[in-house]
Design a protein that fits this description.
The complex is a heterodimer of chains A (about 550) and B (about 325). By secondary structure, chain A is mostly helical. Helix content of chain A is about 65%, strand content about 0%. The termini of chain B are far apart. The chains are: A mainly alpha (about 550), B alpha+beta (about 325).
Chain lengths: ~550, ~325
């Protein structure tokens, strides 16, 4: 083995054991390899992304004309409920869990997650509750039609009278999703605390791992609240309790507190790993260290702390007293300080660099611009008097789709393209990637920008029909929506064809710094032949210092650093 | 990378750079001020005193937001256009890891900005609170938002019984207790604080008139005192703003703001009318569903029968 080459790795991995990198069956098994689980998460999530996207395209088809004419109103209401639910619980959370699962152990120099079997169990709950959600389309009365917030009393109205109905299945799925996410969070936090390679102190850890840690901490403190709220609502619906039913003396606003105590921080669970992706991608393609690394990573933790104190901003127009409105207005706006620190740091990282506009960089830049816009409308929404006007209008829908599609989905694409060679051992096709970026960026702005003027004019969200003065912007938004549907086609074509036929990827195609780039692509089952000994910070671009003092790939490859 | 050190420290800025930065900032500020002025045009007509306040706040937020957005995107765009690596250049950029002064500045300046925006928003909210109660939980301490001294200095308004706003799946109904009138159109006298009691008979609804910029969730099980100050005569759209089930989108109405004389005339005319069944879009659509041979939807909560009122208007009526 002393003079082995990449062929030796290939020969080694041809062994027919189920975890072997070349055995496709491992993706359909109860594998405990974090890399397999990561890809299982990502592929499952992407299938649901397509389903959720198709639902959205039907909605945009309905909204291209003012009248409720394409689908029945009950169907429209089910569409937006399931669209929101699927996109959050079946796409963004599992997708980011998958990315984090794949990357965190590699980035911190570990051979797997702390609890591999718990990791697999957490993943296999995803198809279980995904199936529950899909099954709700086929029960009498159809799926839940109470929106992804499921506010009582609407969510407690059960027109079919059946015990098994869409709302019950929805609540079971959300509760299971909470359990799965808590299992994942315990695993991530333990892994990051306990399994960093020797020499990787907190301030030598890549920013991505900091953001995953911050995000998973939110899952730990927030999810119990949502899960408890969902279980109480389930009891109200099935067992005749009256936690939230005003007709029986319950308090519907209490549910809103339970719901938003988790579900606002949840958007930070989603956006934080995207911040981490930006922090990883910009230095590589600008060939400069991450500007102000310590400020950037500490601001992730500050966001986690602040995120616990902002939930009432979803309820400014509910029955909230003035002192609450003012307190939560201030805490909400305060979050823009640590996020602003990050945005400025990324701009300073890019500034004066030697930019390479490969697909990951394009998606990261596009995502950053969308995030900036969403951040500005977010501060506006924090201002109570303005929020009273646009609360529950399309302004809010536009704002969060800039966060969720513009920043998050584009950030996810940046991450997928950036780490695709590492995950699959193949290069993707750059031309298709750039086409994908162009269609996505145009689609996002066509679809979601018009929602802002609509909201300012007073068009409520969740409507299946609307007044004719809103038609102009809705037509543009619908065209953008269809374009976004089309934009996934070059992506799917690219990923499938390059996974099968693409050029072999070297260990480090981007000349990037990071432990994951020191080992072969795709990494062997236990990642590191030798646990790396980290001797410098994570972003030493331009300064020729070695990241590690040994060769983590063992003697298989020697052309590292 | 390791070129001999220049005599001048790279950190000190030349006069030319400073002048360029200042010129750019002035241009950015000028464009942002212009965008902030445009913001007023994106809003519905200013039909209430609250609307004037909210629009001022929105104009201010738009100005600041545009300044930041333009500044950051211009920097990024410049980088993308002029700071690209040559095709075969695989070297790294300068190893700049940070700059403590810059980092402290871009933490403290946004912090100051946030305090400014929050304070201004608070002042606007405070003025709106003086115009009329924006909250219903009166047993909770108000942190001095409505000091009695200031409230007392407002001109005394003629005491009228609050109008009852009843909302259900899916109709709005307005009751004038003094005249014993029921209407599906909300009539209000101009330049006088409207006082409403919001009552939901089933689920959460939201009282929202975009032209007034006010919105309040109507919560079943509690009566919510609500008020605002209409200042412009006209017909405006009332919308249900909190998702309330199948026919939520059809749950709309018209608010008429008119002079005191016209208002009194309307009250007198309406009181003379007998109760008749109003047109109700949700009910109409629901009954038509029965005519279809195959249902294309799922079972729904049945809409309440159309309200019986002295004065009816339809959702299809005109408005501004």
């Amino acid at each position: 083995m002393s003079n082995a080459s990449l062929d030796a790795i290939a020969a080694k991995s041809d062994q027919p054991f189920p975890g072997a990198p070349n055995n496709w069956r491992r993706f359909f098994s109860f594998s405990t390899d974090h890399k397999v689980i990561g890809i299982q998460y990502m592929v499952t999530a992407f299938v649901f992304f397509l389903i959720g996207g198709l639902l959205a395209m039907v909605m945009r088809g309905e909204l291209i004309t003012p009248e409720a004419d394409l689908v029945d109103r009950t169907v429209y209401n089910a569409l937006f409920t399931m669209h929101g639910t699927i996109m959050l619980f079946m796409w963004t959370f599992p997708m980011l869990n998958g990315l984090s699962n794949y990357l965190v152990p590699l980035m911190i120099g570990a051979r797997d997650m702390a609890f591999p079997r718990l990791n697999a169990a957490a993943f296999w709950l995803v198809p279980v509750f995904g199936t529950l959600l899909m099954a709700s389309f086929f029960v009498p009365g159809g799926p839940s039609q109470s929106g992804w917030w499921a506010y009582p009393p609407v969510s407690l109205q059960n027109p079919t009278g059946n015990l098994i109905n869409g709302q019950v299945l929805w609540l079971l799925a959300v509760a299971l999703s909470g359990v799965s996410s808590i299992m994942g969070a315990v695993n991530f936090v333990t892994t990051i605390f306990r399994m960093r390679a020797p020499g990787m102190g907190w301030f030598r850890m890549p920013a991505f791992c900091w953001t995953v840690l911050s995000a998973q901490m939110i899952q730990l403190f927030g999810l119990p609240s949502l899960t408890a709220g969902a279980v109480m609502l389930l009891l109200d619906l099935t067992a005749g309790t009256s936690f939230f039913d005003p007709a029986k003396g319950g308090d519907p606003v209490l549910y809103q507190h339970f719901f938003w105590f988790y579900s606002h921080p949840a958007v930070y669970v989603i956006i934080l790993p995207i911040f981490g992706t930006f922090s990883e991608v910009f230095p590589v393609y600008a060939r400069k260290p991450l500007f102000g690394y310590r400020f950037v990573v500490v601001s992730s933790v500050i966001i986690t702390v602040l995120s616990a104190m902002v939930w009432v901003h979803h309820m400014f127009a509910s029955g909230t007293p003035s002192w609450m409105r003012m307190l939560f207005m201030f805490s909400t706006m305060l979050i823009s300080v640590p996020t602003g620190v990050k945005v400025f740091a990324w701009v300073a990282t890019v500034w004066g660099g030697k930019l390479r506009l490969d697909t990951p960089m394009l998606f990261a830049l596009g995502g950053l611009v969308c995030f900036l816009f969403a951040g500005i409308t977010g501060v506006m929404l924090g201002a109570v008097p303005f929020d009273i006007h646009v609360n529950n209008t399309y302004f809010v829908v536009g704002h969060f789709h800039y966060v969720i599609y513009g920043a998050t989905v584009m950030g996810i694409y940046a991450a997928i393209y950036h780490w695709f060679p590492k995950m699959t051992g193949h290069m993707y096709y750059e031309g298709l990637g750039k086409l994908h970026f162009a269609l996505t960026f145009i689609g996002v702005n066509l679809n979601f920008f018009p929602m802002h003027p609509l909201g300012l004019m007073g068009m409520p969200r969740r409507v299946s029909s609307y007044d004719p003065e809103f038609a102009y912007w809705n037509v543009i938004a619908s065209l953008g929506g269809f374009l976004l549907g089309v934009s996934t086609l070059p992506f799917i074509l690219n990923i499938v064809s390059s996974w099968v036929l693409g050029k072999r990827a070297p260990a480090n195609p981007w000349n990037a710094i990071g432990l994951e780039w020191l080992i072969p692509s795709p990494p062997p089952v236990e990642n590191f032949e030798e646990i790396p000994i980290v001797v410098s910070g994570p972003y030493g671009y331009g300064s020729n210092e070695s990241l590690v003092s040994n060769n983590p790939a063992g003697e298989l490859i020697s052309e590292h650093s | 990378m390791t070129t001999p050190t220049t005599p001048k420290k790279p950190r000190s800025l030349s006069f030319r750079t400073v002048a360029q930065l200042v010129a750019l900032a002035i241009a950015d500020a000028a464009i942002s001020l212009w965008v902030g002025r445009q913001a007023y045009l994106w809003m519905p007509p200013q039909a209430s005193a609250e609307a004037v306040l909210v629009d001022d706040l929105f104009g201010f937020l738009t100005t600041i937001g545009s300044f930041i957005f333009l500044g950051v995107t211009t920097a990024l765009l410049y980088s993308v256009l002029f700071q690209r690596a040559d095709k075969y250049d695989i070297s790294d950029g300068p190893p700049v890891e940070g700059n403590l002064l810059v980092e402290i500045l871009w933490t403290t300046i946004p912090l100051g900005l946030v305090i400014w925006i929050a304070t201004y928003s608070y002042q606007i909210y405070d003025q709106m609170a003086i115009l009329g109660p924006m909250e219903h939980m009166n047993h909770v301490p108000q942190l001095g938002l409505m000091p009695p001294a200031e409230a007392a200095t407002l001109p005394a308004v003629p005491e009228r019984t609050p109008i009852e706003v009843h909302v259900r799946q899916w109709a709005w109904e307005f009751r004038y207790p003094d005249q014993n009138i029921v209407s599906t159109e909300l009539h209000l006298p101009v330049n006088e604080r409207a006082r409403l009691k919001l009552i939901s008979e089933d689920v959460l609804h939201g009282f929202y008139v975009p032209a007034f910029r006010v919105k309040q969730d109507v919560i079943p099980g509690s009566t919510i005192d609500f008020g605002f100050m209409p200042i412009r005569e006209g017909r405006y759209r009332l919308r249900d703003s909190d998702y309330s089930g199948t026919y939520f989108a059809a749950n709309q109405g018209v608010v008429v703001v008119e002079s005191e004389e016209a208002y009194q005339q309307w009250l007198a005319d309406a009181a003379a009318q007998p109760l008749t069944e109003a047109d109700n879009r949700a009910f109409r659509e629901f009954t038509k569903l029965g005519d279809r041979p195959i249902s294309a939807g799922w079972k729904t909560v049945e809409p309440a029968p159309p309200p019986r009122v002295n004065f009816a208007s339809s959702e299809e009526d005109s408005y501004e």
